[in-house]
């Protein structure tokens, strides 16, 4: 389990704006990729491509799901309709540059899609399994969307067509993002779906506020035609290195009975503590992590899933001064925890399919069920730990849908360790997200998020600024032991489809947030900070390189001593609106 600090520090990097991805869509892709196209059509169904964002129509004359299930119908032929990026039967898509893109793109292989289906020919027809399979397929970043439709019923058998639409997966360009008054840039060559196999490979060099990083990463969530994820990453950084690996066979579906995995991390870097957007402390950290687990579940029973897992974790941090840092230095205490642990998960089967909420004209699977997780481990000095501690993590969530027009999502987590009955590095997060559908194109959204820390390790900060929601202020602007952020947005989803590449939306927003508590070396809190602004949203309809591009202008209400700009310009790529 990696530190929350490292996640905060690399947030800007994860949200890089792939500027050239769309503009260089068909100009720089290597011709060798086209070799996968011919193989990809081996199993394609003879159906016309569907427009982007529009599900395939239902076939008339097919019995309803209830009738098929009641009659004991079984699945007959399964047709794989793996559609390319552009619909060349649409005159607006049938232009030379789009035809070239389809030719160069290695379409996802039919076998990759088949290996992700939760059903086979001869199985009993189940609408639940069809819906869950659609969600699994849509979760792949190389698909724009996925649908499964009955297309023929005969002699007690129902034939199914599995339709997927690919997106452009080669990123040969430059990366740029801006948030909190700082820029991140880089260049990389990344392929999310190598030759249609679902393999992600990336070679990159990025420069952000924390470091310059040169990285090679390879991953596949369905390695060797299985449900096993294999991921490897190697980075040579200006302040250290990163070696990371993961082999994991997860609980990939609600009815999955077994899971197991192993992961490891060797991470050396310079960590900086921030306040008022400036570095207030700096030190070198070395993190070594290794964990293995296995899990078991009785499967889906009466709409609920219970899972029990157990594992063993080695987690060590070592800290040392940085010779180039001339300011105040507080070093976190070295720590090493070696501990077995057990985990219990409870998951309800409750999803709803929505549109124009966090994406633009794209199928969104919202989880509305109850979910809870509790993991408890005991680190003992007899096992090599630097001190004995009870280490725990927990999560809980619940969703509500009222009247078909409003959605409420609640989520929380709580983690920490108990040493001699005292809570250390305790961290509680809670969030409330509310969506109110005003029409097909208008949506009101508001969210409240809060964090509270108890005796946090020095290298774990509770920060608030332009890089995590307070858009009118510099990044990592306020430091404390607690924070809260309230956001209101009026969202508008247009029908504009410029260059047949992006769906366009817009937002007017208001943010208000503050921190509490006395953090080491930090100045007193400035109290409640507020900003307002507006922005454009570009939904990536043809590329898998980031779902929604944000271009925002935010105006802070408090400019302090004049060091805060009266307007902040932000450009980021995020997973949601």
Strand and helix map with partners:
Blueprint: H1 4-9, H2 11-14, H3 19-23, H4 35-40, H5 65-70, E1 74-83, H6 96-104, H7 110-114, H8 127-138, E2 143-154, E3 157-166, E4 170-171, E5 174-179, E6 182-191, E7 200-207, E8 212-220, E9 229-237, E10 240-249, E11 258-275, E12 278-301, E13 304-321, E14 335-348, E15 351-354, E16 364-367, E17 371-379, E18 389-402, E19 406-419, E20 422-437, E21 442-454, E22 462-464, E23 478-480, E24 482-493, E25 502-516, E26 529-540, E27 548-556, E28 568-574
Parallel strand pairs: 1-3
Antiparallel strand pairs: 2-3, 4-6, 5-6, 6-7, 7-8, 8-9, 9-10, 10-11, 11-12, 12-13, 13-14, 14-17, 15-16, 17-18, 18-19, 19-20, 20-21, 21-24, 22-23, 24-25, 25-26, 26-27, 27-28
């Amino acid at each position: 389990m990696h530190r929350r600090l490292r996640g905060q520090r690399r947030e800007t990097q994860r949200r890089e704006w792939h500027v050239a991805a769309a503009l260089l869509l068909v100009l720089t892709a290597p011709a060798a990729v086209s070799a996968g196209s011919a193989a990809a059509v081996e199993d394609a169904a003879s159906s016309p491509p569907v427009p982007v964002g529009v599900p395939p129509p239902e076939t008339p004359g097919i019995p309803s799901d209830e009738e098929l299930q009641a009659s004991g119908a079984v699945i007959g032929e399964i047709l794989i309709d793996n559609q390319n990026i552009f619909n060349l039967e649409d005159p607006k898509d049938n232009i030379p540059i789009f035809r070239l893109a389809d030719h160069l793109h290695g379409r996802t292989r039919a076998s990759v899609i088949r290996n992700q289906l939760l059903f086979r020919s001869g199985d009993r027809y189940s609408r639940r399994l069809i819906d869950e399979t659609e969600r699994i397929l849509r979760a792949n970043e190389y698909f724009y969307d996925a649908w499964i439709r009955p297309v023929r019923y005969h002699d007690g058998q129902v034939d199914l067509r599995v339709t997927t639409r690919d997106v452009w997966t080669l990123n040969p360009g430059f990366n740029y993002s801006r948030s909190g008054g700082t820029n991140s840039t880089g260049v990389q060559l990344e392929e999310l779906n190598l030759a249609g196999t679902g393999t992600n490979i990336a070679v990159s060099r990025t420069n952000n506020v924390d470091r310059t990083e040169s990285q090679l990463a390879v991953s596949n969530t369905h390695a060797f035609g299985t449900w096993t994820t294999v991921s490897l990453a190697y980075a040579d950084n200006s302040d250290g290195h990163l070696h990371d690996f993961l082999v994991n066979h997860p609980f990939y579906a609600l009815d999955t009975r077994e899971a197991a995995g192993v992961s490891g991390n060797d991470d050396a870097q310079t960590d900086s503590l921030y306040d008022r957007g400036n570095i207030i402390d700096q030190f070198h950290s070395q993190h070594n992590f290794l964990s293995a687990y296995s899990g078991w579940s009785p499967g889906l029973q009466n709409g609920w899933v219970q899972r029990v897992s157990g594992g063993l974790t080695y987690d060590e941090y070592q800290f040392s001064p940085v010779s180039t840092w001339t300011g105040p230095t507080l070093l976190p205490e070295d720590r090493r925890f070696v501990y077995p642990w057990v985990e219990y998960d409870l998951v309800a089967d409750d999803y709803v399919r929505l549109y124009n909420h966090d994406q633009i004209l794209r199928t969104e699977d919202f989880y509305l069920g109850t979910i809870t997780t509790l993991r408890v481990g005991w680190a003992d000095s007899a096992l090599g730990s630097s001190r004995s501690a009870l280490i725990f993590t927990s999560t809980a969530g619940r969703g509500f849908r009222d009247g078909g027009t409003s959605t409420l999502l609640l989520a929380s987590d709580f983690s920490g360790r108990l040493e001699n009955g005292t809570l250390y590095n305790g961290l509680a997060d809670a969030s409330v997200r509310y969506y109110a559908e005003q029409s097909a194109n208008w949506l009101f959204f508001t969210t409240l998020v809060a964090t509270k820390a108890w005796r946090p390790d020095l290298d774990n900060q509770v920060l608030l600024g332009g890089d995590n929601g307070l858009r009118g202020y510099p990044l990592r602007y306020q430091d404390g032991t607690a924070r809260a952020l309230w956001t209101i947005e009026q969202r508008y989803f247009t029908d504009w489809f410029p260059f047949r590449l992006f769906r366009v939306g817009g937002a007017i927003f208001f943010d208000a947030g503050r921190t509490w508590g006395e953090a080491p070396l930090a100045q007193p809190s400035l109290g409640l900070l507020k900003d307002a602004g507006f922005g454009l949203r570009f939904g990536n309809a043809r590329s898998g390189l980031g779902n929604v591009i944000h271009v925002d202008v935010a105006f802070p209400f408090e400019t302090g001593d004049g060091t805060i700009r009266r307007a902040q310009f932000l450009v980021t790529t995020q997973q949601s609106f």
